[in-house]
Amino acid sequence: MMHPHNDQQQDWHDFEIDSAREIVTLLRAIGDKKQLVRMLIKGETDVCLTAVLEVDTERGTVVLDCPVNAEQSRRAGGAERIAFETTLDKIRILFSSSQLRSVTHEGRPALEMAIPETMIRLQRREFYRMATPVSLPVMVCIPLPPELGGGTAAFPLADISCGGIALFDQKLVLGNSIGSHFQGCVLDLPEIGSVTTALHIRNALDLTVLNNKTRHRLGCEFVDISRGNLNLIQRYITRLEREHNARVAGLG
User: Fold this and answer.
1) Which ranges of the chain would DSSP assign to H, the alpha helix?
2) How far apart are CA 107 and CA 122, in angstroms?
3) d(CA 216, CA 127)
4) What is the tens place of the pLDDT at every residue in 199-239?
5) d(CA 170, CA 173)
């Protein structure tokens, strides 16, 4: 299999699904629940959103909604490899394709790909990500090596899980840092405490947000984090989830 995100996790085989029936069931459930799917084009640093419109088992194809940005649609159609990520009932789902084709679905432009031969379904709790607050962002302080100017720089988080964090580096302070390892990074978790851990930067991409602004996002993996610090992170994730559920229920 062409692993969809092999830059982020080594043990994909433990979570791999190769049952054609199960893969079709998952894809149809993603479409029925109108789950947004993140689409990452290999060799590009931009991500766009799509959705599963139809799964045709007779033709062996999946029809996807076109990204809003026409240029992203063009790049997706010409890419040799595209990775996809979504969630279904709080379970992270990953898959990939070697080719997308431009088609028409119900009179509208769409993209089509072959039904993937395998998918990744990450059910372990540590892969469940929670977005961190935007108004009062959680910060991580990273000690910089001499080649990056030395000192310490603070970065706002995008999300957090028990496996790692995603942070925004708008000024590219960390440079082209994929594969870099930073010791002594400190996470300040509101009402929980501080967590010190090493971080390994696994991926980087540019996200287009509101008003067509772009944010540079780095995905980081915790390295040799202590059980005590991991417990603090789990407590914080649980707190975020509780607050999110309260808002959804109209109690927040």
Assistant:
1) 20-32, 70-78, 227-248
2) 35
3) 21
4) 999 888 877 665 667 788 899 999 989 989 988 998 998 88
5) 8
Pairing of strands 193-208, 46-50: parallel
pLDDT in tens, 120-155: 887 655 566 788 988 889 999 999 999 998 999 999
Beta strand segments in the chain, E: 16-17, 37-41, 46-50, 52-56, 61-65, 82-88, 91-97, 101-105, 108-114, 119-122, 130-131, 139-143, 152-160, 164-168, 181-189, 193-208, 214-223
pLDDT of residue 7: 40
Are 84 and 39 in contact, with CB atoms under 8 Å apart? yes
Q: How far apart are CA 208 and CA 197, in angstroms?
A: 29
Closest CA to 37 of 119, 149, 106: 119
